[in-house]
TrEMBL record:
Domain MIF4G-like type: 370-553, 573-874
GO MF annotations, alphabetized: mRNA binding; RNA cap binding
SUPFAM superfamilies noted in UniProt: ARM repeat (SSF48371)
Cellular component, GO annotation: nuclear cap binding complex; nucleus
GO terms classed as biological process: mRNA export from nucleus; nuclear-transcribed mRNA catabolic process, nonsense-mediated decay
Protein name, UniProt field: Cap binding protein 80-PB
Pfam families listed in its UniProt record: MIF4G_like, MIF4G_like_2
InterPro entries assigned: ARM-type_fold, CBP80, MIF4G-like_typ-1, MIF4G-like_typ-2
PANTHER family in alphabetical order: CAP BINDING PROTEIN, NUCLEAR CAP-BINDING PROTEIN SUBUNIT 1
Amino acid sequence: MYEFPSSKIAPFAKRLISRRATATEANVKDAVADAARIGAVEQPYKIPAYATLLALMVHPDRVDVESNGEANGDAAVDLASGSAGIMEDVVKGFQSSLDGLRWRDIRLTIHLFAHLTRAGTISSSSLLQLLQTFTAVLDEFGVSYHRGLQAALCAGEGVLIAGEALFVQSAESIEAIISSLETFSSSSSSTQDVVVPFMKQHEIGDVTGERSYKAGEALSVQSAESTGAIISSLKTFSSSASATSDVHVPSSSPSIQDGVDPRMEHQEIGHVNDERSYEVLTALTSTLRAWAASSFAETELPFPLPYASLSLKDVEPETQFSLPALIVPPEVIEVEGVGESSSEESRAPIGPAREFPDVYLRLFENDATPSPTTLTGYLLRTLSADTVNIFEVNRREAARILTELPRWCRKGLLKLKNAEGELEGEWQLEPLLVETILSHCFALPRPEQMPLYYHSLLTELCKLAPQTAGPAVGKSIRKLYNLLGDGLLPEVARRFAEWFAIHMSNFNFGWVWKEWVPDIALSPAHPKRKFMRRAIELEIRLAYYDRIMQTLPPPIRDPEAGVVPEEASAAKFEFGNPANEHHDASMTLAKLMQGNPEQRIPRSSPQEVIDEVNRIREQLAEGEYTAEMADETARAIAFQTLLDVGSRSFSHLLNAIERYLPLLRNLAKAEGAKAQLLDETQRFWQQDEQRILIVFDKLMQYQILDPVDIINWCFGSVSDTEGVTMDGHAGRKSRWFSTFKWEALRSAMDKANGRVTVAKKRAATLRKEDDEARAKAASTGDDYAMADNPDAFPEAAPVIDSPALANALKALATLTKDQKSSLTAALTGFCRTLVYSPEGTSWEARRDWTDTAWASWETWGWFRHFCTFYSSYLRSYANTLETVVFAELAVPAGAHYANAPILIKKIWNVSLGREDA
């Protein structure tokens, strides 16, 4: 099954040449070359085979017919005529990919060219010239990181595959290419630190450095100039805050002389510099540097090379194909603005961009999977990742192809069972695949594909190879779990919990929970405890309460452990209890909303319900309630009753909200009413975070609430939510951030950004239609008559936008303002929370941390993720945000971490790619 079919390539090549030589159809010749090129970019594991096929088609005389078999067809056919122009057609296809900046196709086609160079079909000098074209992109002024990274990968991987031939051609040029890649990689080293999946406590270490890891010179030792600028701004913050009685800078703040904090030398943003993760470009340059040191003399690719094993004759250099001189076209910059303004709003992006280095987790040791800084490790990971991304449209086919990778790799490279059932080979396939899939699923700030695709792909792998893939998945789960509390970021932990629950649901929820029983003694805010609660909560969503409880050992089921809820999630309807003093009023509203089908009593109209709510409010005000208390109580009764009516299912909830939208608008119009609606939702569904998020989303969808209301609520802290714990998660009364709050904030931010995206696209479409209509109207005039007597014609009417465009621009302005308000609220909330971070919490002593210390660490992690996840939007409004938020940032009374503003600004600068970071 796993023998490379190299003997079939030569006869097949001759058949194609014969078909091409005798074809009468005009498109046959182009189709043959396109098929080979497209096959290479759609099936990268077959690139050596396609290179061999093209090499034999270009030079059919290189085949030893006697050893490889005669091709079917007429032997008298002029094969030279069939091979003419093949490489030119391949280059045409490559030019098309280049024009469209389809980077993966470009990179894989360069792989094909590199193999053809090794086979002697393409001249080394022309390939070297092509690779230098891509390194020139790195020197472009203002080149985006994504463009630079893709160009660097194209050049670097081309050298990696054809290095020996290129090194013989020009060792100096190879050194220049590698140096160029290293320079570009080092320029993004600081940005890399904010997407590493690990983070230490955000603190300033002691002068001995015993409590700090070096994150790289770009961040570990900050320049005196940039530090001085930050400190100068902080002095402004402090002086502006000194006039306020409840805000001060603690006397324990370090002394600052000459703009330099004596402890800044060891300040870092949380990068743990170890082998638990790697960055793609750094791995590539390390591999290239290692092989360049040996002059590429011992380079052995992990793939079989049929063109090296077939009986091929030497090709004279003058007969080799020379790739033409090509240029990489500039990026297509989509004009986002619909007006002629150069304001922040016009520069805001339509969607997120890939602006950060690709940093991936490592879950297995080098004895199980090859290191990514080796030739084998890098190329195998690249091949696996490309296959995963190409076949995302069919997870079953992707899984099948991945399990068959040993067929396309060098014999003995990947372990396989021999006739006796024993594993033979150098590396294990399944750990490599599991590590590749999970590392891409957990990539920050966002994965390339939908997370559910990676989840499904792992499920298919386990079904295809249960005896080998299953143990690899189990080991990866244990590895990830052990990383919890050891610096694994909260966002990665969140994705890990989602994948874990989904994977367990596909395999009968069969996990050995007893392994984690000792961890229930940890702090309730410890990442391992929070992971268990989160995973069990998600499993219950995917099944039901009693089913999941059967899979858990008694110590974890114990209510005192605080891991599982005491009962299945259900609504906590405060006014459903007959003992409640407002029970009768709530039941009256419920009857109006539900009607009585048996007695043919229809549901009441929204206005009738509003009248009843007003009557309840008046009755309460006439009693012992103040006007404000009466209003809040009536609102609570009405809203919780509406939630109870819609609590039976999602469709019931949607129907109730849609039917009584006027009631909801009436309830939300008073000051502070929107925050109360959010509090009532949390109180009603305190055992079901998913329901809370659904209600929040629907209230935003119908514009009862604005995204900024949700964001402000996430950072609010009120006293009337005492007792709301939400299955062990911190309720709203906690100032610290949590997974639930992040999901609520992300939902609100995505809603605000999505509305602007839709409005921009609509305004741009209407602008285009308006311009076309105006141009058409202008072209209907009598040009000849105007040329003879231009004074006889009136002046052109002033340009006036159509009513539709004017309305669209007005809506866009409003939504853009809401977007900016949402970003401001989120950044302000994080800043005002993080200044309360505790000081003196040693990372090495984290096993003894309190709940506050862990909650603070988690909030720093969410802030870092917020800055990277929404960096493209934050960068567009950076000037405004810095003026509004940072200008008032100070350390309030009761805060312990005086250096929090410095770290906040540092993370902000690095995430936004500021030069002074």
